[in-house]
Design goal:
single chain, mainly alpha, Growth Hormone, Chain: A
Length: 392
């Protein structure tokens, strides 16, 4: 393929809009949880089961497409995402019980995972000398999209009291936009293919102790960030605060933080940023467990600062320190992260159904970043200032 025909800026724009679809679907589930509990009689455990496929469907897509994206092409994987998300959005509109919601969520999860499986290696391929920074900038639009979804939800459902299905239908808008860009643009080969790393070396890379260590840590970082935000409505039900506004606040701050990731991570190093994030996330969850009223928003700010860089910096660390793992390595990391959330959500539901307050559940969640503080302390001792990234 003629590399002169590849427009990195337009491909990056398309990737960010695709990620917005994923993000709004995340805000959508946070909005639908109380609606399906109150209007359709689902329990917190039912909701955890029905929403689980958003995360393990994501994992399935990443595990399936991660090993073959180099050969099949990133563009073809994104075609899969379009089809799956179209099915999932439409099915959600017609969902009325746990199982219909389950299968709709599964389709959306597969579509979302296809986006991550294709776009992470795409960003790494079009910006090979600035991967961690540009991956952070790409992932700006996950929290950014959640802000959009949270505010649209608040306006349509809370202020205007419109039907929830209208909110679901807003997902068609970014879906059509990134689908149109996808049809127009040409794609490069993945970085692993262009750099000549063999498929055998790629598989060997994911067996390295460092990769296995980072994969374990991804289970905890993703659950700390995503499981807490996904169930924010239930967790803060008795905290005298507006959960969707709390979600908009935290994800808005995360979007801002990731926009300036280049100079921040450049100063601290990737391993230093991960340790910093674990410490602040732990403090944020503990504060949220005690907060009420206006203090909820203050605690949410601390939590947002903590989880802001977790996901993209974990991906960026692997892309920089274990580049031979290629698209497969990035897909495994993202897939494991989402899979961990699918496990944690029902567990949180069981806690809440058996009478555990949201505040106590938040304290249980704080155990995850506590473990990460120990893990990332060791990582920082080994890598220190070595793992720096160039500023954008």
């Amino acid at each position: 393929m003629d590399s002169q025909k590849i427009n990195a800026k337009k491909l990056f724009l398309m990737s960010r809009i695709a990620l917005i679809v994923t993000a709004i679907s995340f805000a959508l589930r946070a909005s639908l949880e109380p609606i399906f509990m109150h209007d359709y009689g689902l329990s917190a455990t039912d909701i955890g089961f029905a929403f689980g496929p958003a995360f393990y469907g994501f994992t399935i897509a990443m595990i399936v497409f991660g090993p073959i994206v180099d050969l099949w092409g990133m563009k073809n994987v994104l075609y899969i995402s379009i089809i799956a998300q179209l099915i999932g959005i439409t099915a959600t509109i017609f969902a009325t019980d746990m199982w219909s919601l389950f299968f709709a969520t599964l389709a959306i999860g597969i579509g979302n995972g296809s986006i991550e499986a294709a776009c992470n290696p795409l960003v790494a391929s079009i910006y090979p000398d600035n991967k961690a920074t540009m991956l952070n900038k790409f992932h700006v639009w996950f929290p950014g999209g959640i802000v959009i979804g949270s505010l649209v939800s608040y306006i349509l459902l809370d202020l205007l009291n419109l039907d929830w299905r209208l909110f679901v239908a807003t997902l068609y808008i970014p879906l059509v936009i990134y689908g149109w860009l996808l049809l127009k643009e040409k794609f490069p080969q993945t970085e692993r293919v262009t750099s000549g790393v063999s498929t055998g070396d790629m598989w060997k890379a994911i067996g390295k102790p460092l990769f296995i260590f980072m994969a374990f840590c991804m289970l905890l970082t993703a659950s700390t960030e995503l499981a807490t935000q996904q169930r924010i409505g239930s967790l803060l039900a008795n905290a005298n605060a507006q959960p969707m506004l709390v979600l908009a606040l935290t994800t808005g701050l995360m979007a801002i933080g990731r926009s300036f990731a280049g100079p921040v991570v450049h100063k601290l190093s990737t391993s230093g940023m991960l340790l910093f994030s674990a410490v602040i996330s732990f403090i944020g969850l503990v504060l949220l467990s005690y907060a009420s009223g206006a203090m909820v928003y203050a605690a949410a700010i601390v939590f947002a600062v903590g989880v802001c860089f977790f996901w993209p910096t974990m991906i960026g660390f692997v892309a920089e320190e274990i580049p031979e793992s290629g698209a497969l390595g990035l897909s495994i990391m993202g897939g494991l992260g989402m899979f961990s959330v699918s496990i944690i959500l029902p567990i949180m539901g069981v806690f809440m159904d058996t009478g555990t307050e949201g505040s106590q559940t938040l304290m249980y969640m704080a155990i995850l970043p506590a473990v990460l503080i120990v893990a990332f302390s060791g990582l920082y001792m080994k890598f220190g200032k070595k793992s720096k990234v160039a500023e954008a």
